[in-house]
Amino acid sequence: MMRLITGIIFLLSLGLFFSVNISPEYFPYVGLLTLLIPPLIVVNAVLFLSLLLAKRKLALLPLIAVIIGWKFIGITFQIRPQQENPQGLSVLSYNLHLLSYTRNGEDPNIVRQNIIKWLKENPSDIKCFQEFYQDFTTPSRNAIKQLANDNGYEYSYQTIEGIPSKRSYGMAIFSRYPIINEGRVFETRRNNGVIFADIKVNKDTIRIYNAHLESMNIPSEGLNNIEGIKENYRETLSKLKNGQVIRATQLGVLMEHMENSPYINLLMGDFNDVPYSYTYFSLRKIMRNAFEDAGKGFGFTYNKVLFFLRIDNIFYDSDLQIEHFKTHREVDYSDHYPISATFSWPNKLSKEIQLED
What we know:
Blueprint: H1 2-19, H2 30-33, H3 37-53, H4 60-68, H5 70-76, E1 89-95, H6 108-121, E2 126-135, H7 143-147, E3 154-162, E4 167-175, E5 179-187, E6 193-201, E7 204-212, H8 226-231, H9 233-259, E8 264-270, H10 278-286, E9 288-289, H11 290-294, E10 312-316, E11 321-327, E12 339-344, H12 350-356
Parallel strand pairs: 1-2, 7-8
Antiparallel strand pairs: 1-12, 2-4, 3-4, 5-6, 6-7, 8-10, 9-10, 11-12
Helix pairs in contact: 1-3, 1-4, 3-4, 9-10
């Protein structure tokens, strides 16, 4: 009986470990199954220790599973000291929830003032915002003026919905360095999309991508408590599945755009996908992940009942060298926590060298 159970767990583990390479376009529910990877690694570890203590040769199977799945441990949790006062290009990514995230009867105006104050004080050279709300009609709500014009930042703001000259929401990139080119990779009719800006940093140019991939579109009231999730589980599963499929399509467009970039790429934003997903592993094949290389702890970025989700990320080309990464869990002004990183590069960025030759 133990052989049968161990064998089933082993085969199931291998199947799930491989499933991160399968596009949800072909198997829509694959992204939901991969959520079982962390508990399966724990099960294999416990099974290995139990069989080892029992001196069973069968312990070899869960050991192999743990070894193969070891990469998922590094994706989930990191232990390393944080570098103090890192030097280099600092970046920040933050889903702002339209600058209107309130809980427990909070005054929305006070919340907005708090978040604007924190963003103005944050020293990052480049700031990428998803769900950015802009109001040109009211000085106290003119976020671009407060965060960019009054603080010496150039900016790229792409409207997704609303009247651009009045009130709208979209995506924004703010930079202390000159923006020499900007554009949109794609957009949807809701609040998702990807924009980019080519930024001149001293003698180098780097392309910054600000991404907000397809949301799960689950009503916020359905995620406020466990009971709400239980009551809406069928609708929730359907939306999770549809989101997986749409993100896979968006990812293809984004990766093709990055492949044709004339500069080194730095990609950040809200990916609405966990680290055990096709989206994450597809990007991981061509770029490095800031949390994996310089993060600490679990790095959870979601600020709701499903607190154990890390769906905001910073990916970077290997020509860059990461010096520091942080998840700002002390900043509780949105349904996401902001993330930041600092990068350096010892040599001139390689893609530009190729262009100049």
